[in-house]
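Worked example 4.2. Below are the chains of a multi-component assembly; read each line carefully before continuing.
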Amino acid sequence: MSNTTFDWIASLIKAVIIFVVLLQLVPVLIWLERKVVARMQQRIGPNRVGPFGLLQPLADAVKLMAKENIIPTGVDKLVYYLAPVISIVPALAAFAVVPFGEPIHVAGRVVYLQVAHVNIGILYVLALSSLAVYGITLAGWSSNNKYSLLGGLRASAQMISYEIPVGLTVVAVVLLAGSLDLLDIVNQQVKQGIWNIGPQFIGFLLFVVASNAELNRAPFDMAEAESELVAGFHTEYTGFRFAMFFMGEYVNMVTTSALATVMYLGGWHGFGPDVWYLNLIWFILKIFAFIIFYMWVRASWPRIRYDQLMGFGWKVMIPAALLNLAATAVVIVVAKERATLWLTAVNIALFVVFLAVLRLVNSRQLEQHRQVVPQPDAVRG
Amino acid sequence: MTWIPFVLIAAVAVFFALYLVLSKNAVHGALSLVLVLVSLAIFFLLLGAEFIFIVQVAVYAGAIMVLFLFVMMLLNVGGAEGPLRENPSWQLAAAIVLGCVLLFEAALHIARAGEGVRHFPQAIAADFGSPERIGQLLFSSYLLPFEITSLVLLAAMIGAVVLALRRFP
Amino acid sequence: MNPYLPILFMLIIATAFAVGALSLAMFIGRPKGGNERKLAPYECGIEPVVGEVRERFPVKFYLVAMLFILFDIEVIFLYPWAVVFRQLQVFGLIEMGIFLAILLLGYMYVWRVGALEWQ
Amino acid sequence: MDIYSAVPFSAWLALSGLLFTIGAIGFLIRRDPIVMFMCIELMLNAGNLLLVASARYRAVMDGQIYVFFVMTVAAAEVAVGLAIIVAIFRQRLDIDVDEMSEMRG
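Applying the procedure described above to all four chains together yields the following structure tokens:
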């Protein structure tokens, strides 16, 4: 077998496996989210279909598939059908460059444990996630419904606003690694002896917040606020077309979690022996930790107001991300070899200061609030 | 055999370029322009311009076209009128004549250059078009243009804000 | 083999899945009659308000997209810089500092003028 | 799969010229300013394609840098150009280039 044939077959197999795994993760995540959120709200969650309600997503899928395919009057049919496809295809393709293990050797050839090993991996993921805006905008526009259009515009304005902080925090990671290749980024973390969550702790926090907003998830899910916008851009979508938006969202969540794992948590590295199957388990565990964190956030915080959301993105996240980037660059130049150590120290110190300031501001606001509203307990009921 | 990707992608690009010019609907036109941009991005990739490829996708397809869509929705010009709505016929004639002249010029150039432009057998390094090389060039030969770029962006930022926020009588 | 070819495979598989699933759903869930009420756009369950559906929206949305483009370009310029930063050292710091300082002026102007407020 | 060895440079030249011509004709025959704007983008991209192709065929990377700058300028131009369209629209509530005669100054 020639080298080229081998490469073709290997990459085809990898592509199919990743595709199947990603699609299979969607029902698992939907089930998990319903269960986790239910438990946090003192409910039980799905428990009728199958053991622990495990087959519930399957039942939902059958229902969605069999639903009547309504095309509302006055929609732009071409765009209306295209929008769900546009929202899921980039989501699936974005995962192609994420590495999930050390390259392994099969029959004397190197096989990368990622669908495509490219030079500019991290930028590729960001670029494809910026294409996700289209699905939402077009869905809102084509539906011939005011609320859909407003929801779509809001969602896309929010997504593009938070793309900039995401990009800026990623630049700080690239500064440390000196490469856009995701494999290099993981290896560099092993080489420097500490995962990037240490020297980039502030960046990590910014990335988690900004990516949560970019995923349109609660508490940043103003775009699909059921109470205000009758569910936003997908109001007029039923059945499987609706399901496709959902799948796109969950796949994006997996990709973002995987990206955060690769950039900040050392990728597939963990404790114990360094064999590829253990590494894979570590990788999956870290991804699920992130996903459960996102679910936890969703269950804990109320939705924030749209003007606050945009103001936060432009006035807090961008300056903070720029400061983080500048600090990283300066420390790298000044501290040279000991940059990692210094960055870790600076980040932790800054975080402590940040917490202290937050506490101070909070208590002051609470004080003012008490003065304005004499009996807050009575008001709250 | 290696002609196939070129012909396929070129056909896609030309088809959607024509669709942009002739379609009645501005939003459909914008979507077809996105497809043209993406097919050109694939060409960039095949021509060894890895970084430019991703910039094309991220900036052109991911940002500039989004602004076009936003403005169309903002101004509600989605379902615009026919493409050739009551255009003066001299304009149409001038356009076609000018187009023919342009094409003829290109053809003339190709014909005159003959074998000269057909092949420069040039091997390229493995990192041709990588972000490292772009960065090295940007911070050596092209340092001044790079800094001036920030002025262009500053001017654009101020200009657009002034124009968009202005109160009209 | 071109390292980007697997991405093409992925794109083809994903598109085939999306189109296939949608066609299947279209086949299974054929509309089963009904009147024009059923096909009317859903706006809080009440009768759709008469008038232009694709209304005009606040200029704010446009401003956000415009600022996004300019900042996106700025971020894109940061990537090649970050990759070669270890070679450039202080020189890179100064040059990028100038670049960002000029853009920060614009950012401050935008903020001062109130383009970032969302009334 | 090297596209470079099979496709002569003149093919890129022809494709780029064709796309540029389509953009130019579109710019002249359409009246919707947003579509005209998109035609300008098409013309810019035809130029970019030629720059990248010649960068490859001469094995010099400068062409790619030019494309990078062209994209930057295009982004700035789109932001300002669309701002002008929005401003005119807000004032006149109608956009048709033939009626923008007051722009002549």
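Take a moment to check your reading of the output against the notes. The radius of gyration of chain A is 22 Å. Strands of chain A lie at 104-106, 109-111.
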